[in-house]
């Protein structure tokens, strides 16, 4: 996937929720080590994954939008894979399933290799240093390149050091990538680094920059507030921070983390908040996280293609 695709395309759709829907709608349990990455080895798991991806593909087709979809591999890092019953083919096997989906989709579809931080994405606990992160994440990024993904998607990165280490690894391995931050209302990552400083730091210190920056697992109203903070009201942020995979609750990470019940805003309100990010902040990649489904994403697609 070339960076020019993001720059030159007016708007792109990203998949909505997978994990939360698999639990809530289908009562599917995840592997204790690698979570959803094991589902491709189960007939039911694979079938349901394809069913959910197909719903988002149908929406992209209906509104003539390019679609970004990601492998369910956020927890399939080297350490967790080695502790599991699975082997290092798990990344390639997950990519292979999405390649089958892409081949039959009939739309412009890009496969992202999803990865995450080593520790807690919402508190930063267990964070890695820049050097540790580069070493730790290189294995998974290398496996994504071997498997032939279109880009790597580093989701909910809570601290700048680990995000920078991931960026250095992806830059050296030479694969297109997107960094998606964990951000709060104050416009900062969990470690207090502003979105602007995080983007500036990574862009200045890696040879091959991310294609763009995003956020995920956060309500669009929180992102609008975060981007409106004086520390982030800058041209660099407007040019480089281009996407969101949003959840449907306006609660903070601290309030949501470990919550037993699903908190949601209604689909119309949610879609309108996403539209505000497009109109006021120039975002162009729109996807869903916890609480979303095909109904939410179809409303989003309808509004962002006006």
> Measured on Cα atoms, how large is the radius of gyration?
18 Å
SSE run: HEHHEHHEHEHEHEHHEHHEH
Q: What is the percentage of strand-forming residues?
A: 5-15%
Please state the oligomeric state of the protein chains shown.
single chain
Name the average pLDDT: 95
Strand order of the largest sheet: 1-2-3-4-5-6-7-8
CATH-level-4 superfamily name: Homocysteine-binding-like domain
How does the helix and strand content classify structurally? alpha/beta
How can the largest sheet be summarized? 8 strands, parallel, barrel
CATH topology (fold) name: TIM Barrel
The CATH class: Alpha Beta
Number of structural domains: 1
Could you explain the architecture of this structure?
- It is a single chain.
- The chain has 306 residues and is an alpha/beta fold.
- The chain has one domain: TIM Barrel (Alpha-Beta Barrel), CATH 3.20.20.
- Helix content is 47%, strand content 14%.
- It contains 13 helices and eight strands.
- It has helices at residues 3-8, 19-26, 43-62, 78-83, 90-105, 130-147, 160-173, 195-205, 220-227, 235-240, 253-256, 267-281, 294-304, and strands at residues 12-14, 67-70, 109-116, 151-157, 177-181, 212-218, 241-246, 285-288.
- The chain has an eight-stranded parallel barrel, surrounded by six helices.
SSE layout and pairing:
Elements: H1 3-8, E1 12-14, H2 19-26, H3 43-62, E2 67-70, H4 78-83, H5 90-105, E3 109-116, H6 130-147, E4 151-157, H7 160-173, E5 177-181, H8 195-205, E6 212-218, H9 220-227, H10 235-240, E7 241-246, H11 253-256, H12 267-281, E8 285-288, H13 294-304
Parallel strand pairs: 1-2, 1-8, 2-3, 3-4, 4-5, 5-6, 6-7, 7-8
Helix pairs in contact: 3-5, 3-13, 5-6, 6-7, 7-8, 9-12, 12-13
């Amino acid at each position: 996937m070339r960076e020019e695709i993001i720059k030159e395309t007016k708007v792109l759709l990203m998949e909505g929720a997978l994990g939360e829907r698999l639990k809530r709608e289908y009562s599917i349990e995840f592997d204790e080590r690698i979570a959803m990455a094991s589902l491709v080895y189960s007939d039911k798991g694979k079938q349901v994954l394809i069913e959910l991806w197909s719903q988002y593909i149908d929406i992209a087709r209906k509104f003539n939008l390019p679609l970004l979809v990601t492998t369910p591999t956020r927890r399939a890092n080297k350490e967790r894979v080695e502790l599991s019953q699975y082997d290092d083919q798990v990344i390639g096997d997950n990519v292979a399933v999405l390649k089958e989906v892409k081949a039959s989709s009939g739309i412009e579809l890009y496969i992202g290799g999803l990865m995450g931080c080593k520790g807690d994405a919402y508190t930063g606990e267990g964070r890695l240093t820049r050097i540790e992160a580069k070493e730790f994440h290189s294995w998974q990024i290398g496996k994504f390149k071997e498997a032939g993904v279109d880009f790597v998607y580093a989701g909910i990165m809570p601290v700048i050091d680990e995000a920078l280490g991931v960026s250095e690894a992806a830059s050296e391995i030479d694969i297109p990538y997107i960094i998606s931050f964990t951000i709060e209302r104050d416009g900062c990552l969990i470690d207090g680094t502003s979105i602007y400083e995080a983007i500036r730091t990574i862009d200045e210190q890696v040879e091959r920059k991310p294609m763009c920056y995003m956020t995920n697992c956060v309500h669009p109203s929180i992102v609008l507030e975060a981007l409106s903070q004086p520390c982030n009201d800058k041209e660099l942020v407007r040019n480089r921070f281009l996407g969101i995979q949003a959840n449907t609750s306006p609660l903070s990470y601290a309030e949501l983390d470990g919550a037993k019940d699903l908190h949601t805003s209604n689909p119309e309100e949610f879609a309108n908040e996403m539209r505000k990010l497009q109109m006021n902040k120039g975002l162009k990649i729109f996807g869903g996280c916890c609480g979303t489904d095909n109904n939410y994403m179809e409303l989003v697609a309808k509004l962002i293609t006006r």
